[in-house]
Specification:
Layout (H helix, E strand, L loop, with lengths): L9 H45 L7 E6 L3 E3 L4 E9 L5 E7 L12 E5 L4 E8 L5 E5 L2 E6 L7 E6 L2 E6 L2 H12 L18 E8 L11 H7 L3 E7 L4 E7 L7 E2 L2 E2 H18 L3 E7 L3 E8 L4 H9 L11 H11 L5 E5 L5 H17 L1 E7 L2 H8 L5 H26 L3 E5 L4 H15 L3
Parallel strand pairs: 2-10, 13-16, 13-18, 18-19, 19-20
Antiparallel strand pairs: 1-3, 3-6, 4-5, 4-8, 7-10, 8-9, 11-12, 14-15, 16-17
Helix pairs in contact: 2-4, 4-5, 4-10, 6-7, 7-9, 8-9
């Protein structure tokens, strides 16, 4: 008997394998299709939930406010506070973008945090302006989203607002407090012994820490059962005028702040100290012509008037005109006064050109010229020279520094008091000189 065997060719197995694979893939594709439909349905459901939560009608969603000081102090840190409150029933993520004034050049302001239902989130940040004038804040934008994070909604939590930047009243108040409590020596103000007797009785007041114990009024102390002191004032109030040059030489910056701003900040402190010392404070600003003039007064609101006058003064691109300044001083200030002229000389030649007008001012008044050291040139002098070009630059820089000292000598030779100061030390140097004049009875 013959036994026959069946032989299956390899193509049969290949075909069978393909059929099995196609059968399985068909089932998997069906599963994939069902899974995809479920995922899409879940996704759109979550998006709809986000829409219903973030864009619900009726009721509050998020409230916030940006609290700004009524005015900013130039050159100082000013605090800004932001407060947000969540009224949604879910926890939300908040991304805060504040539209800051373009003067700050801050384009990456960003804060983020999480808020639970009914929770309040507060944070602070500080801004340091280096220019006076009007600063415009834009919207306070808050982007809110839920845990899913599929959608984000922008809410304008605070509207645009304008803030005025005034001369440094923070520095003014610091010096005022120290002057009242007799602690000016802590910031470098020297105590100058007074010559002669030029004080008269003013009033009896309560003792303040730092008062001279020799002025204690023992009879009044016994009657009031607390320390009382006699307060004295100068026999005659003098006029102190700040003459502020707003020409192009005052545009030079130092630590981001112009020389004009240093002069304005110092003049504000000087006016306050002068009124505390029972003198009258006045103001003149000028460039190619006289821009404004405030007569010397000592009323309580006069300092605010000076600040309002100074906060928006700007430098020009032309040279200052001392002849125009002299004409105004001659006609508007008949009484002998202390004139503090804030300006800047970069060369001995320019100082010689202005000397005739300075001598005329000094002939009728006590004139003090305040100008600035060039700190950038001073840094150049102290750098180590590496080649002939560096040596040449340092030689030129030393000549400029030497010319500044020659200007001081030339002013003093013509009977004009002078202060050559670094911008950062200008206030202390000016107040020291003023107190020296008071002690010597020159004004």
């Amino acid at each position: 008997m013959t036994i026959q065997s069946t032989y299956l060719r390899p193509h049969f197995y290949y075909g069978l394998s393909v059929l099995v694979v196609l059968f399985l893939l068909g089932h998997f594709w069906f599963l994939f299709f069902i899974t995809g439909l479920v995922a899409v349905a879940v996704f759109f459901s979550l998006v709809v939930i986000d829409i219903m939560i973030l864009y619900r009608r009726g009721g509050r969603i998020l409230e916030g406010n940006r609290q700004l000081p009524p005015r900013f102090s130039n050159g100082d840190k000013n605090n800004v506070s932001v407060e947000l409150m969540n009224f949604l029933p879910v926890r939300i993520r908040c991304e805060v973008i504040d539209e800051l004034p373009p003067q700050f050049q801050i384009r990456n302001f960003y804060r983020k945090g999480w808020l639970s239902p009914g929770e309040t989130w507060s944070f602070n940040y500080s801004l340091r302006p280096v220019e006076r004038g009007e600063y415009h804040f834009g919207n306070l934008n808050v982007y809110i989203s839920t845990r899913q994070g599929f959608l984000s909604r922008r809410i304008k939590a605070a509207a645009p607002v304008m803030v005025k930047v005034y001369p440094s009243f923070v520095q003014m108040r610091k010096f005022e407090i120290m002057a009242i409590s007799d602690r000016l020596s802590e910031v470098g103000i020297k105590k100058v012994r007074k010559y002669g007797h030029q004080m008269e009785f003013d009033q009896i007041r309560e003792y303040i820490k730092g008062d001279d114990i020799r002025t204690i009024n023992w009879k009044a102390t016994a009657r009031r059962a607390q320390l009382m002191v006699n307060q004295y004032q100068d026999e005659k109030s003098q006029q102190v005028f700040s003459l502020i040059d707003m020409g192009r030489t005052m545009k030079m910056p130092f630590n981001g702040t112009s020389l004009l701003d240093y002069a304005i900040n110092t003049s504000l402190v000087l006016a306050n100290i002068a009124m505390l010392k029972h003198d009258k404070a006045g103001l003149i600003t000028f460039n190619e012509k006289v821009r404004c003039m405030l007569p010397a007064r000592r009323e309580p609101h006069h300092l605010q008037t000076i600040m309002e006058m100074l906060y928006n003064q700007q430098t020009g691109f032309l040279e200052h005109n001392l002849e125009a300044l002299y004409a105004v001083v001659r006609h508007k200030i008949p009484q002998r006064s202390l004139l503090v002229l804030y300006t800047n000389f970069e060369s001995l030649k320019s100082a010689h050109r202005e000397m005739p007008f300075l001598r005329r001012l000094a002939s009728n008044h006590l004139l003090m010229v305040v100008f600035f050291e060039n700190t950038e040139i001073e840094k150049l002098i102290h750098n180590q020279a590496s080649d002939v070009e560096d040596i040449y630059r340092q030689t030129i820089a030393e000549k400029f520094m030497f010319d500044k000292k020659l200007i001081v000598k030339e002013l003093e030779r013509n009977g004009i008091h002078a202060i050559l100061s670094k911008p950062g030390k200008l206030t202390v140097a000016t107040i020291n000189k003023y107190l020296e004049f008071k002690a010597r009875g020159l004004i």
